Amino acid sequence: MTPDELLAARDRVVPDVVAGGLRVLFCGINPSLMTAVTGHHFAHPGNRFWPVLHRSGFTPRQLKPSEQDQLPGYGLGITNVVARATARADELDAEEFREGGRVLSAKVEELGPLWLAVVGVTAYRTAFGDRRARIGPQERTIGGARVWALPNPSGLNAHWTVSTMAEEYGRLLAAVDRNAPGQDQGGSTTVTTTPNSQPGPSSSR
């Protein structure tokens, strides 16, 4: 992949991986240039989304970005707050995030996932005007879906390791399973225990 190919992918829109009635719709900040070139979400080698998704228990093995179309079979999907690709997230302004939040709300209402998981709490705060939001379950719903803010799996997010991110993603999985259709819907969605993570690769990708 050449620098010219990457530059040519700027502002390209990458199709979502979605279906109706998902268990969790994961929402990134916006596509990277590598994602825009390949058409595969979280495609940058340094991004830890796919290892974390496996180690947290969402998938039985670590999927490759090119295998993203298998996600709906697990009740999972991927979208973004902002659709256009950039080299860095700081190329997006606050109004783009707010408009992305409005588009995302309509999308979630149409698709009807049980949970919306935004992978990047800063993007969530800006898109939905919630400056006090922290990692974890949120009080609000969006488009009828419950909301969880997750750590950004980018390799630039040095505050979180693959292991600690897998623990947080695992907390979401526990809440998803506990509040699945047919289960007892009562009680808070806040989770205080972490399920055992499945063993998996520890590469930072």
Could you characterize what this model shows?
Helices cover 30% and strands 14% of the residues. It is built from six helices and five strands; from the N terminus they run αβααβαβαββα. The protein has a five-stranded mixed sheet. A hairpin with a 2-residue loop joins strand 4 (136-142) and strand 5. Helix 3 (49-55) packs across helix 6 and helix 4 (94-111) crosses helix 5. The longest helix is centred in the middle third of the chain and has 18 residues, at 94-111. 41% of the residues are buried.
Tell me the layout of helices and strands.
Blueprint: H1 3-8, E1 24-28, H2 33-38, H3 49-55, E2 76-80, H4 94-111, E3 115-119, H5 121-128, E4 136-142, E5 145-150, H6 162-178
Parallel strand pairs: 1-2, 1-3, 3-5
Antiparallel strand pairs: 4-5
List key phrases describing it.
205 residues, alpha/beta, five-stranded mixed sheet, 6 helices, 5 strands, disordered C terminus
The coarse silhouette is: globular
Rounded to the nearest angstrom, the distance between the terminal CA atoms is 17 Å
What series of H and E elements makes up the topology?
HEHHEHEHEEH
Q: pLDDT under 50 segments (min length 5)?
A: 184-205
Note the main sheet. Answer: 5 strands, mixed
Report the count of strand segments. 5
How many alpha or pi helices? 6
Short description:
The chain has 205 residues and is α/β, with parallel strands linked by helices. It contains 6 helices and 5 strands; from the N terminus they run αβααβαβαββα. 30% of the residues lie in helices and 14% in strands.
